[in-house]
Each structure stands twice: as C-alpha cells, then as structure tokens.
C-alpha cells in the first residue's frame, strides 16, 4: 500500500539534495512537487494545500543543525505532519457496557460484513471477550448467510430471526439475548446500499437511536479514494460515528482516503483491513503508516505480528534443538506455518526498512510456500528427522510424490541446510555472548 505515493515523495525530497539550508526559494519547488504527489494519491486539493502550508511554516521555522541536511530535515517534518494529518496516535474502540454494542455501518461492497467477522475474532482472541454477532442486514438476501458462514469459521455465534425484515427488532432482541447469556460484546452488522441515499440514512439513524451503541464504526473501501471521504461525511452527519475502518488497504497504492479522512471528517481511522483472511485486521497507527509512506518500514508492527503467533514453550524447545543441532524439516515446516499466519509475505517483507522499494516489482504470491510444503509432506518421518540420508533415489521419489522437480527438491534441501546453520549460529552465538557477559 502507498507504493505510488512513497515513490513520488522520494523524488520530491531529492530536489533539496546538495542544498546547504532550507530557503523560501528551494522549498517552493519541493512543496510544489509534494502537493502534486498528494493530488496523484487522490488527496483533495484543499487537504493537499493545507498540508503543504503547514510543512512550509515548520520547515522555514527550523534551525537546521549542521549535522542534519535539509533533505533529512524535510523528511522528518513531512513524516510528523503525515502522522498528524492521520490522527497522530492510534485510537482504541470503546467496549464498555453490559453488553457493549458495536454498530457497523457502510455501503454495499465496502467489506462491512467481512469486517464484522474479523472484529469479532479480534475481540474474542486478543481480548478474551465473549462476542455475539447480530445479522441486521435484512436488505441484502445473502448477507445473513454470509455472516453465519463467517461465524462458524471463527467460532462466534450469529443471532438472526428467520423472515424478520425489521433490523431494529433483530438488534434489540440480539442485545437482550446477549444480556441473558452473559455476552460481553454484540457486533451489529447493518444494511448498506450501492450509494448513499435518504432511505439508508433514515434506517441507520433509527437503528443507531434504538440500540445506543457504545461504538459506531463506518466501513469504507480505501480504493475509492475521495469517494470514501465523501461517504464518511454523509454518514457522520446522520449518525455521528466514532471511527473509520479502511478495507482493501492491500489494493490501495495511492492512500488518498487514509490521508484525508481525519482532516476532512474529524474522526479517527481505527482499523485497517487487508486481505481475505479473518486474522487480517490491524489497528491503525498513524506514525507507523507515516513510516511506511516514507519508505522507513514498520518494524514495530512486524514484531507485534510475530508475537501474536509466538508460542513461548515451542520457542524454548526450538532453541534447545538448534543448540544441539537437532533442527529438523518438521520444525522447518512448523516455522513456515507460523509465518503464514502473520499475513501476506510481501506485505511482511515491506515492513523491513528498505525492503518495500526492493520488492516493488517482485511478485510474491500468497501461496509462495506451496512447493516447499508439498516437498516436505512427501518425505517419510525418518527423512524429515534425518535429511542427510536423502540420496538421489529418495530425492527422485520425493519429487514425483510432491508433483515437483528434482532441482526444486535439491534447492529446498540446500536452503534448509543453510537456514539450519544460520539459526544455530545465531542461537549459539547469542548464548556464548551471554556467558562472556557473566564472567
């Protein structure tokens, strides 16, 4: 995400390269280029102009240290302003109440129902709260079935009333059942339309008044750019929502909606949704997003994703195996599964500083590990534990059994051996350093 904007801003900063200090003259050309970059990212002219005016005031008011080049100072100022425009700090959702009611609104096609399922899983798994989904989209025929399917997938019950067309009745009865059965949170999935119309606004307003939600979230498609901003303005006038959810962020290379919504509507972006996996939901961190836009990566988010899949007991056992040189292909396979749970491989790699640019034109498919998994699964348990016994005939059998080629099997075994040596060196080297420190 933000690929195009990142590239354009990099070009803008190069204008200041070689300059001794920031002046009215040299900053004018840089800001003109930054404004053009923002407009190309589908940011409105008003927002782009306001952003550049604020950057100009800050840049001309800076006492640039001799150790800091004007180009570096400009990057920092733009970074801080980008974060400020997107809300500065992340905003949590309000889950107070018995039960807490989260109302989810948005247009058809924005990813509203899928988000409801993702949010339910997020609250259940990360906060340990008992969640009930309420199927209140009685307008779209397939919406209730879609929510029920998602509910089964994530292990969260879905409340619905067969043949009932009144969303208020469904919502109020869902809340009553949640109260009786001790649910902590009710997520109300509401009806949408193909476009903003009075009927939709009247319906969502009435539902909002009836259920008194502790949190109201508007779901918008990030790829629609300024349309997403206009949709946010219309919904805010009707229900005064608490926060925005940007979906399909993985397909948005421009970023206009993310950069504009807080400034235009005055409401924070609380979540971003990427991909179809139910775990693919992230809290929106303005400063980290600013890091990504400026090609600085997002190591903090990468570490957090790793920690979510981190099994402390399994990690201790793995460390012992590595130290004793007992790391097997089964262990290698398990590590692949952990990485897959973290999300799209290319998105993860782009969180490492400098990698986003390096991978810009590299195609890394979602099933990047498919061949590796097939080869390992075609081995016998003894071969996985003792890869050194895998001779030519065994390699041929494994290739045939996995539907791959002999070179692919050879390449995997070579990669595994390299990974094993590297991991062993990292673990034993760290251990040796710890021992030296105790002396």
Task: Supply database-style keywords.
439 residues, alpha/beta, Four Helix Bundle (Hemerythrin (Met), subunit A), 434 Repressor (Amino-terminal Domain), 3 domains, flat
As a whole number of angstroms, the C-alpha radius of gyration is 26 Å
> What's the architecture of the largest domain in CATH terms?
3-Layer(aba) Sandwich
Number of DSSP strands?
8
Helix content: 55-70%
Helix and strand pattern = HHHHEHEHEHEHEHEHEEHHHHHHHHHH
Largest sheet: 8 strands, mixed
- What is the CATH fold-level name of the largest domain? Rossmann fold
- The global form is flat
User: What oligomeric state do the depicted chains represent?
Assistant: single chain
Structural domain tally: 3
Query: In CATH, what is the homologous superfamily of the largest domain?
Result: P-loop containing nucleotide triphosphate hydrolases
Short description:
57% of the residues lie in helices and 9% in strands.
Describe this structure in words.
The protein has 439 residues and is of the alpha/beta class. It folds into 3 domains: 3-85, Four Helix Bundle (Hemerythrin (Met), subunit A) (Up-down Bundle), CATH 1.20.120.140; 100-295, P-loop containing nucleotide triphosphate hydrolases (Rossmann fold); 304-438, Signal recognition particle, SRP54 subunit, M-domain (434 Repressor (Amino-terminal Domain), Orthogonal Bundle). Helices cover 57% and strands 9% of the residues. It has 20 helices and 8 strands. It has an 8-stranded mixed beta sheet with strand order 3-2-4-1-5-6-7-8, sandwiched between helices. The protein starts with a helix and ends with a helix. The model has no long low-confidence stretch (mean pLDDT 81).
């Amino acid at each position: 995400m933000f690929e195009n904007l990142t590239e354009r801003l990099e070009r803008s900063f190069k204008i200041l390269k070689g300059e001794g200090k920031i002046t009215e003259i040299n900053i004018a050309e840089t800001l003109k280029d930054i404004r053009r970059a923002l407009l190309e990212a589908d940011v409105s002219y008003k927002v782009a102009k306001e952003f550049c005016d604020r950057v100009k005031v800050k840049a001309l008011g800076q006492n640039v240290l001799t150790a800091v080049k004007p180009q570096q100072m400009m990057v920092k100022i733009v970074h801080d302003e980008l974060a400020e425009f997107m809300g500065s700090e992340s905003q949590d959702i309000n889950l107070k109440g018995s039960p807490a009611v989260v109302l989810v609104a948005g247009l058809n096609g924005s990813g509203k129902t899928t988000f409801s399922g993702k949010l339910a899983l997020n609250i259940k798994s990360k906060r340990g709260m008992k969640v009930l989904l309420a199927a209140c989209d009685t307008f779209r025929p397939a919406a209730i079935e879609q929510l029920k399917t998602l509910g089964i997938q994530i292990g969260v019950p879905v409340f619905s009333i067969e043949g009932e067309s009144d969303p208020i009745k469904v919502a109020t009865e869902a809340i009553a059942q949640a109260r009786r059965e001790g649910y902590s949170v009710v997520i109300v999935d509401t009806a949408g339309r193909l476009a903003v119309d009075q009927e939709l606004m009247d319906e969502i307003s009435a539902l909002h008044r009836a259920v008194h939600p502790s949190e109201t979230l508007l779901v918008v498609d990030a790829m629609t750019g300024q349309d997403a901003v206009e949709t946010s303005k219309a919904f805010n006038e009707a229900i005064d929502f608490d926060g925005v959810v940007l979906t399909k962020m993985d397909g948005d290379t421009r970023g206009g909606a993310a950069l504009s919504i807080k400034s235009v509507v005055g409401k924070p972006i609380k979540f971003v949704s990427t991909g179809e996996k139910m775990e693919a939901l992230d809290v929106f961190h303005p400063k980290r997003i600013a890091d990504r836009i400026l090609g600085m990566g997002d190591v903090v988010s990468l570490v957090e994703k790793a920690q979510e899949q981190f099994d402390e007991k399994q990690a201790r056992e793995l460390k012992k195996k590595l130290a004793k040189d007992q790391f097997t292909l089964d262990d290698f396979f398990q590590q692949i599964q952990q990485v897959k749970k973290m999300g799209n491989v290319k998105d993860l790699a782009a969180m490492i500083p400098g990698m986003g640019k390096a991978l810009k034109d590299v195609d890394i498919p979602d099933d990047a590990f498919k061949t590796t998994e097939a080869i390992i699964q075609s081995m016998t348990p003894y071969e996985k534990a003792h890869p050194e016994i895998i001779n030519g005939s065994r390699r041929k059998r494994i290739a045939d059994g996995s539907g791959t080629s002999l070179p692919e099997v050879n390449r995997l075994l070579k990669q595994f051996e390299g990974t094993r040596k590297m991991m062993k060196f990292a673990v034993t080297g760290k251990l040796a350093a710890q021992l030296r420190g105790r002396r």
